[in-house]
Amino acid sequence: MSEAEELGNWTRSHFSAEIPKKDGSSVTLMGWIRAIRKVGKLTFLQLADREGFVQVIFKGVSPQIQKKLDILQRESVIAVKGKVKINKTAPNGVEIIPSELKILNLAETPLPLEVVTQKTPADLPTRLNSRFMDLRKPEIAAIFRIKDMVVTAAREYWDKNKYIEIHSPKLMSAPSESGSNVFEVKYFKNTAYLAQSPQFYKQIMMAAGFDRVYEIAPIFRAEKHHTYRHVTEFTSMDFEISFISGLQDIMTEVENLIVYIYKHIQKNAKTELKILGKKITPPSTPFPRVTMTEAFKMIGEKFNDNDLSSDQEKLFSEACKKKFNHEFVFLTEFPWSTRPFYHMKKDATTTCSADLLYNGLEIATLAQREHRFKILMAQLKDKNMSPKALEYYLNSFKHGSPPHGGAGLGLDRIVMKMLGLENIREAVLFPRDPERLWP
Ligand code: AMO
């Protein structure tokens, strides 16, 4: 007997969660055997698919089916034809009395990872090594179904607000954010750099007259730190808009986007949130705004034109929780010394830029950009950067770049914080970090 039968003309009639609640209905189901239990002449199979699972009860079967049952292993892939039997105590209120069984692929034993979470769960590296098995767990799959909904919501928001989606190059002739943290790749006889941000291109699109653009794409950072919030490849949700009066317009846009995403998840991810035991409530607007000077005052320290260290960030987020009782806070008026050359300056030492913190973690950077060529060149010089490699970008400011600004939001960090996950790797399908380039 074959251990991998062909599907032939069988087609799936339902996912487990959609099985009609009517005695005697005929169904064809396909999925993985999550559990096998034999009691006397009865064999109970738990058939799992993307939407849940259903119990299939074999009783008094033909010798041919019995032979198949004898060799079945957990996590094998099967297809079953059978009839629905109502049983109020069963999951979904139904059981399946099968008439035909196909083994589509027999799973090897032992399994590299248990799908049903054990008393002592496997550690994250073990889980990531066998991510395909890990992702069969409903509570892990739920994270990525919610991530999908976050992206759907963002796209919907941007589409409704007349943004145009762009796809900017990820292979670059010069680093896109800063010289550090950049991956070099061999590019024929030259060196290319992996994009650290779509920054320059989204700004060029403003000079191109596209007015409002967004991009959802992977970006790469050669981050050496092994932390709970850094990976070397992540998904950035970027947008850029023209004809803004100031940073305020960008902050409002970010708030509207976040609230839209939250409402969408609250409405559409009920099943997933239940699996994860999470509740979410759309945040109220406006989000609190705190200048860097105020932030240092709130933690009782002196502001010396420096960024908050990660310890200070923690203290600040505690202080914010007490003061505002809000999950989000905009940290504004970053010092020029800590920001890139393209941020517009508010005065000699301060920029028109902000970070958005979500329960203490930076999830977005926002800024009004310097769109006046001469000032931009002076700022570049001030940062000791050479205009040569950035000529393609700088040229776009010479011939009509409108006042503009935008933001970059870290999708993986948003999902991590929204679901209260402890490590960003939990929110990335196949995370990349200094020690992990596999699977
Ligand atoms: P920034 O460098 O702050 O800004 O990045 C934007 C957002 O990306 C996320 N992020 C990361 N997520 C996971 N792993 C990392 N190593 C990592 N690094 C950054 C954070 C961060 O807020 N060009 C600007 C954006 C702009 O001004 O429009 C930029 O890239 O959530």
Largest sheet: 8 strands, mixed
What is the count of DSSP helices, taking H or I runs of 4+ residues? Answer: 12
* Helix-strand topology string: EEEHEEHHHEEEEHEEHHEHHEEEHHEH
> On the 0-100 scale, what is the average pLDDT?
95
**Ligand species:** aspartyl-adenosine-5'-monophosphate
Unreliably modeled segments: none
What do you see in this structure?
The chain is of the alpha+beta class. It has helices at 63-71, 124-129, 131-134, 138-160, 199-207, 247-268, 270-276, 292-298, 310-324, 373-382, 391-394, 411-418, and strands spanning 26-39, 42-49, 52-59, 77-86, 94-105, 164-165, 171-172, 184-187, 190-194, 212-220, 233-242, 289-291, 328-332, 353-358, 361-368, 404-410. An 8-stranded mixed sheet has the order 6-10-11-16-15-14-13-12, sandwiched between helices. A 5-stranded mixed barrel has the order 1-2-3-5-4. It has a 3-stranded antiparallel sheet with strand order 7-9-8, with no helix packed on it. α4 crosses α6 (247-268) and α4 (138-160) runs antiparallel to α7 (270-276). The two termini are 33 Å apart. The relative contact order is 0.11. The model has no long low-confidence stretch (mean pLDDT 95). The structure holds aspartyl-adenosine-5'-monophosphate. Aspartyl-adenosine-5'-monophosphate is lined by residues 177, 197, 199, 221, 223, 230-231, 234, 236, 238, 362-365, 367, 406-408, 410, 412-413, 424.
